[in-house]
Amino acid sequence: MDDLRGRRVLLGVTGGIAAYKAAFLARELQRAGAEVTAVLTESATRFIGTETFAGLTGRPAYASLWDGPGEVLHVRLAHGHDVAVVAPATANLIAKLAHGLADDLLSATLLEYDGPLVVAPAMHAGMWAAPATQHNVRRLTARGVRFVGPVEGALAHGDEGVGRMSEPEQIVEGVATAAAAPQVQTTTRVWDSLAGRRVLVTAGPTREPIDPVRYVGNRSSGRMGVAVAAEALARGAHVTIVLGPGSMRPPVGVEVLDVETAEEMRAAVAAQAPAADVIVMAAAVADFRPKVAADRKLKKDQGVPELVLEPTPDILAEIGARKRPGQILVGFAAETHDVESAGRDKLVRKNLDLLVANEVGRDGTGFGAETNDAAILVAGGDGVALRTWTKAELAAALWDRIADRLVSDAPTSHS
Predict the structure, then answer these.
(1) How many CA atoms lie within 13 A of 402 on its CB side?
(2) Which of 129, 145, 231, 298 is deepest in the core (most CB within 10 A)?
């Protein structure tokens, strides 16, 4: 949490039963070294008071545009903080942010504010799942807003479902990540540019069993593929992700098909591919698997086993061979040297429209890292030379080029 040390954090609190957790969040942010100022909505004050936050943070807490006589309070607050977090965030506040409304101190401050923003939703399950709320979430995600939660759990009136606010510790992690990440430029993104499109993404590693407890695999976390899926969702697509056993999960709204082996991924992709407008194969499928997997755990005292490997199916090549007209297929290549040259060869051999050629095998790029050294290669068009990206930046740039190709490939009507 060193990324929060000395940072000025604006803590927005909206009206909901989870507002009491915001007091614990304020304390945890301070323990991480942040300086915290709380801004409450009028509804929030029905659950918890400004005095509580003033006492916890040692700084004034605010609830009204008129709390700062003789100054433009929302402007001072917006310009005086490094990172902002709203927890809990109601459906109403999310809608205000999405549509630029500013009818109270918190919404006016956030409209003026232009730094990293984290939102921790809390509401009833039906409100969270409502198409209007999910549309607003996609719009905000496209602008670079980070969402933490909600999670499944107990809700008001004894109900259960997805809508419970994440715990303060998880929100602090989200705030720290937002504070540390370079600001992604979102001005070139087109909201809803993928509306009505069906997108299929693969992500994460595969695990090929040696015995019931051991496997052949790789270091992929699924972070890149999840970023690709999240960006497509933010642009309005219906997104399905075939997800191997990595450490990352996609945002709410993405349909998830969990798989473990290359054969399971192959079957899931084959079933989903015909209906997809765009297929992005970002998974790191294991190249080899044991020819025979033991049905019992191999014991050390039995000696070193003889492990015979065989190739796994080449899912990308199979989909490339069956690609229908108008369908866009995107591949990823992980290379340790001659990155762009190897990528161009794969682009042609596997009948791809675009390919992301990643440099791997060293710190700071590729599997599990926050950044990628990668090139975007485009069949018959201009790509982007090898450079360093955050995974969010790379996903956005990739979808910019896919969206352009969708437009250029669209049929033209003639009168």
Answers:
(1) 29
(2) 231
Do the Cβ atoms of 144 and 186 come closer than 8 Å? Answer: yes
Within a 10 A sphere around the Cβ of 19, how many other Cβ atoms?
A: 24
Q: Which residues are catalytic?
A: 218
Angle at 261 between CA 327 and CA 202, to 5 degrees: 30
Q: Locate all alpha helices (DSSP H) within 303-338, ordered by sequence.
A: 315-322
Among 157-161, 332-336, 357-361, 396-400, which is the least confidently predicted range?
Answer: 157-161
CA 6 to CA 3: how far, in whole Å? 8
HSE-CB of 44 using CA atoms within 13 angstroms = 34
Rounded Cα gap, residues 168 and 87, in angstroms: 9
Q: Residues 377, 355: contact at Cβ < 8 Å?
A: yes
Query: What does the alpha-carbon distance between residue 64 and residue 105 come to, in Å, rounded to a whole number?
Result: 5
pLDDT digits (tens, 9 = 90+) for 276-307: 999 999 999 998 999 988 888 888 888 888 88
Give dist(CA 341, CA 337) in Å, integer.
9
Stretch 180-207: mean pLDDT? 74
Instruction: Check: CB of residue 205 under 8 Å from CB of residue 246.
Output: yes
CA distance 279 to 258: 17
DSSP 86-141: EEEE-HHHHHHHHHT---SHHHHHHHH--S-EEEEE---HHHHHSHHHHHHHHHHH
Q: Give residue-wise pLDDT tens across range 85-124.
A: 999 999 999 999 999 999 999 999 999 998 899 999 999 8
What the block records as the tokens of 264 is 């399971």
Distances (CA, A) of 376 to 225, 232, 277, 353, 396: 15, 17, 20, 11, 12
- Cβ neighbors of 187 (< 8 A, separation 6 or more) are none
Instruction: Give pLDDT, residue 366.
Output: 58
Read off the pLDDT of residues 229-263 as tens digits, 9 standing for 90 and up. Answer: 988 887 889 999 999 998 788 877 889 999 999 99
Distance of CA 221 to the CA centre of its chain: 13
- Put residue 337 in one of left, alpha, beta given phi > 0 → left and psi -120 to 50 → alpha: beta
Would the pTM count as exceeding 0.85?
A: no
Half-sphere exposure of 137 (CA within 13 A, CB side): 27
